[in-house]
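Entry 14. Structure prediction run on the chain below.
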Amino acid sequence: KQKLREAIASGSVEAVLGEAGTASSLSTKYARDVSPAPECITFKGKNFVHTSCSNETLIDKFVLSKGGEVRSSTVQATDYLIIGNDIDHKTTKISRAEDLNAQGKSIVAMTEEEFWTLAQKQQ
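Output returned:
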């Protein structure tokens, strides 16, 4: 955990990637139900919500360190929804993101592994 904290403090995600795990087929399916797979990620001025992620505290610290905001509860004017790898059902947050996209909003969903991979590319 200390190595992860140091990675967050330095702005590096390489150590965190090893902890992200492999995206389960359900979390990937739910993410693709909400949006196509993102090719990049932007932090400054963007809002993030996560659901059932194994590294939620690390995600929050990393997003904040890069100028993003974390919304802890309801998906509203959120730009990104990070879906954890241990999910076994469609959560309220996922359903809300689908509803918002159906209304013309632009909610981008990704798995926790996709988040860390895109964060590394952004550096």
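The radius of gyration is 13 Å.
Filed with the rest of this week's runs.
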